[in-house]
Amino acid sequence: MHPTPAQTDMTLVRDRIQDLLDRDRDQSTHASRHRAALSEWALAEPVGADAGTGSLLPVTWLIAEGLRQAEEVQVSARMTCALACIGRACWPYPRGLKLDVAQRLLLVDPPTPDDAVWAAERCIRNEAIGAVVMDGRGLGMTATRRLHLAARATGRSVVMGRKREELRRPSAASVRGVVCPEVSETGRPRWSVEVLHRKGLRSEGPRRRVVERCGAAMAFVVDAAVADGSVATPPRYRSAAIG
Amino acid sequence: MTLSQAGALVAGELAVDEHEPGADAAALTALARWSTRWTPRVATDGADGLMLDMTGCDRLWGKPGRMARRVLDAMDRLGVETRIGIAPTRGGAWALARSGGGAVVITDTMQSLVDRLDALPPALLRVEPAEVDGLAEVGVERIGELRALPREGLADRFGAGVLRRLDQALGLVDEPMESVHGWTPPSVARRFDGPVLNAEAIALASRELVDGLCAELVRRRRAAGRVRLSVERLDERLHTQIAHREIELSRPTRQAKHLWTLLSPIVERMHLGRGVEAMTLTATRAPRREDRQLSTGLDSTGDVQPSELPGAGAGAPALPGVVDVLSARLGREAVRRVELIDTHVPEAAATTRPACEAREDRQVNKDRHEALTTVRPTVLMDPPEPAEVVLMNPEGPLMSLRWRERQARVITSVGPERIAPRWWRVRASTSIHDAARDYYRLQDDAGRWLWVYRSLTTGRWHVHGLWP
Residue A12 above 70 pLDDT? Predict the structure, then answer.
């Protein structure tokens, strides 16, 4: 049974998104649902070459994914955790978020990429922070490796926004994907999310889902028709074989 | 006398003020501390007096008369009616100030003081009223008459207090003065035997300073809200140079571990010059913090570490720790929290403030916030970016949008939502935002959702937000 837009239960939505990411995971690694890691997401079609703040990164998806990860930490640790947003490019407009989510944001504006990595690592290692969303444009393998290891060690996830072309470069990220806006008829923003690379995949299965923002909690529902496979929505962008 | 009785005796309206002895004493102590600008030794005297030891201060302020006038003017500016007595002894000054001889009465020498005191009543020797009555019974109404009496019988007849006060006024007995002290911030210092260039030694000394400062804070029942590290080092020309570095904490603490976490990166990157000669660690802001019981789940230093997060349960981890660490390296302006403001104007409805600023969250209309959340973008453009829109007709639906050199067909258009300016600010500002705007949520043929508006004043279109 697939959730409808009216079903905004966060647990259900979380399971659907997790299902998207876990579909092909080896059963031996499936025992623990929450596996903290570094994930990288890029916007398929950034708007304008000199686009302003936030328009080069899939901010909505990054925040939603960060909140989802933070909620997993909250559920397991039974406490309320903050969400750290590192880099102005991934600072959301608070009025577009639920009130308690907006009040849980810690916004960091590091002057250099090195400072950003340092800040992200400090945030990951603090138990008051559930997940980190960061602008990872321009970071190299060493930085991503450092963050990935820190995430694995502390159980906190890092959701990183990247440029589309940077997904071809070496990275320690466990998950790399592309987010692309999709035309929707429901009046709500809709995206297709394609996982290009995921460590631990056993087989090549469907890696693409269409998700739609649902309600005020930055929750997403997986489009039922697409999840069923009854409607084949071809990708509108050129998917690159990466990883 | 009751208040009603007093009211009956006074024609017209009776001005009534509560007598608050504690507040009066605190104000007098504050005035004494303020007066340390004249001399380092200042004490409160009774309920309405200050005693200033001016010994050695003439080099700073000139002759006693000149200084007295300056004190008088300063007190006058504060609105404090003042009479000043200057004498070689404390008792003598007390008597002269209350003798009614004018706003300022000065005696330079002991002989002139004795001459003046002789003409004054014994009550000005600070003796008890009962003792004054006893002296009056035997006809002693001047200090000179008291001095003429044989000393052997004075203590027996009138009590030891009379003789002691007389001797104090005449300078025959020492009278210690318990001066108030201005607040000195908790501080610890370490001076090396010579210039030190060894980073490990500097780090070790810094750590010891942190431990020392925390011990001092515990002793004084305070916690550090702002800490300053001062380093005295030799520059290239071997001249002593003092460098300061200050860190601000989001919440006062006296945890050595936390302070060292903040300070260690500063020490590591500190420029040592030709060698460090001394280091000082000062808590430049140190609010009072009482000790707490350990059984309440607090740490051993009594620090309270509640979470700032809404809905956080007991025992929830504290955010201030990481805020302090980030702020210490990146600067306080680089680490921020969201501040929501109850206004309908989008760009003013949400702002940020430094996370280390301890400040209560504003009350936000939650229902209104939640109602608008789904129709507000994830990213707000600042400033809004101009766009060109093609309409089917002047008031009709939107057909296409040109933004950032890209033409897009509009598939869905939801709106308008009219947002009026804040009329009470329109006159004070000429910002482009100060015009009514009609907002639309648009979906273009690429699936992007944009939040665009048309200014009702200029008719121009802008993209104000998006859901990337």
Answer: no
Q: Report the percent of chain A where pLDDT is more than 90.
A: 13
Chain B residues whose CB is inside 8 A of the A82 CB are 309, 319
pTM check: above 0.90: no
Note the pLDDT tens digit of each residue in B13-66. 788 888 888 888 888 988 998 888 888 889 998 888 999 998 888 888 888 889
Q: Name which of B337, B443, B449 is nearest A106 (Cβ-Cβ).
A: B337
The pLDDT value recorded for residue B309 is: 43
Is B385 in contact with A81 (Cβ distance < 8 A)?
A: no
Inter-chain residue contact B406 with A180, CB threshold 8 Å: no
Chain B residues whose CB is inside 8 A of the A236 CB are 446-447
> Between residues 23 and 42 of chain B, which touch chain A (CB distance below 8 Å)?
none
What separation in angstroms does the CA of A6 have from each of A10, A70, A147, A206? 12, 23, 37, 25
Q: Which residues of A touch B366 (CB under 8 A)?
A: 99
Lookup: tokens for B461: 């279109």
Does an H or E element contain B223, and which? none
Q: Is the per-residue pLDDT at A190 higher than 50?
A: yes
Contact A37, A243 (CB under 8 A): no
In DSSP terms, which residues pair with B8 in a beta bridge?
none
Q: ipTM of this model?
A: 0.76
